[in-house]
Write a structure and sequence with these properties.
alpha+beta; four-stranded antiparallel β-sheet; about 40% helix; globular; binds adenosine-3',5'-cyclic-monophosphate
């Protein structure tokens, strides 16, 4: 069973969308195997997004991710990584397909409500960045 990692970002938590997003996740056949609600510190956000550190949006992105609580999640199903990316929709909600989470809930490219791992290696890194093995209960 493939696992992926997700974040419900500050804009969605602030607008009380945790339940609606979890409903989409479970309703699409994913099993949530780990979850916590935390306030990220800047060094933690910078470490998480280190692959983007040379990008012009890195400072704004990492500061934004610390503006309020986020929900960190691990969930699984067959082909979970690709399936979660499809359910999220395009990074920019303006480009997202109808029925995707970002189309329905996201505000803009930065406040895009959810994050998801883009490949197996990034999923492994992102899961282990926030969760120990004993916190993941399949
Ligand atoms: P996420 O999936 O969390 O991965 C990196 C984030 O950077 C992305 O979602 C966007 O919220 C944010 N971001 C801001 N500007 C850009 C950009 N120009 N291109 C891609 N991602 C961006």
């Amino acid at each position: 069973m493939e696992k992926t990692f997700a974040i419900i970002k500050p804009d969605a938590v602030e607008r009380n969308l945790i339940g609606k997003i979890l409903e989409r996740i479970e309703g699409n056949g994913f099993r949530i195997v780990a979850m916590k609600r935390v306030l990220l510190t800047l060094p933690v956000a910078q470490g998480f997004y280190h692959v983007h550190k040379e990008r012009p949006f890195f400072k704004d992105l990492t500061e934004y991710m610390c503006t309020g609580p986020v929900v960190l999640l691990v969930f699984e199903k067959e082909g979970a990584i690709k399936a979660w990316r499809e359910l999220m929709g395009a990074t920019n909600p303006a480009d997202a397909d109808a029925g995707t989470i970002r189309k329905d809930f996201a505000i803009d490219l930065e406040k895009n409500s959810v994050h998801g791992s883009d490949a197996r290696d990034t999923a492994a890194f992102e899961i282990s960045y926030f969760f120990s093995q004993t916190e993941i209960l399949s």
